[in-house]
Amino acid sequence: MIDMRAKNVLVITPHPDDAESGAGGTIAKWAQEGACIVLVVCTNGNKGTSDRSILPEKIAAIRREEQKASGEVLGLSEIVFLDHHDQELADNDEFRKELVREIRRHKPDVVITIDPGRKWIRHRDHFVTGRVALDAVFPYARDHLAYPSMLENGLEPHKVEEVYLWGTDEPDVFIDIDETFEKKVDALYCHASQMSRSKEEGTSRLRERFSENGYKVHSALAETFKRLQLRG
Ligand SMILES: [Zn+2]
Fold first, then answer.
1. Starting from the edge strand earliest in sequence, which strands make up the sheet with 110-114, in order?
2. CA of 36 relative to ligand 1 center, distance in Å
3. Ligand 1 centroid – CA 102 distance (Å)
4. Which pTM value belongs to this model?
């Protein structure tokens, strides 16, 4: 198992609550083990409601507070809100540059984000985030000639060692979350505006879902990832 002491981890999530759902147990576990974990929230979640009486700015404000509360539960060191509107993320220079800036600022050993695979129906913000995050990791954050003005601001090139992708169809890493499953659920339920089920019912569904791969690491519960290793 990797030693997470003194490691820097950058988590890049499309919407508030996606990281908790895909990787919350691992994030909480690594934070407990001493990693410094920064979360980048790409959108403000302003279309995340079925309540027609709530304005987009209002739901975005609610979700920002929910994300902060969840960050406390997970043990995050910092949360960066990029504040893009829901369903408006694009694979463009503006978004890529923002992610490169955060990678160069926080210098993560490990980046955790969502698998950009786009089979069947998938939320567009999800695959755009995964794709742009991977491009930002390599080659844009690494190359000094990518966004040269960043050098003037002290944002030196940075090499990420590993990327972990949640929501993948091809998992090859299984992380035991027995000890942090409760924190994962608590963090998810900080996002009260997004929860349609009671916490009791939600917990049993999550337990069922994350028990599928536990046997691979001799635990009851495990989160699954596709790991990409980058060479120097
Ligand atoms: Zn999402």
1. 78-84, 36-43, 8-13, 110-114, 162-166, 222-229, 173-176
2. 24
3. 20
4. 0.96
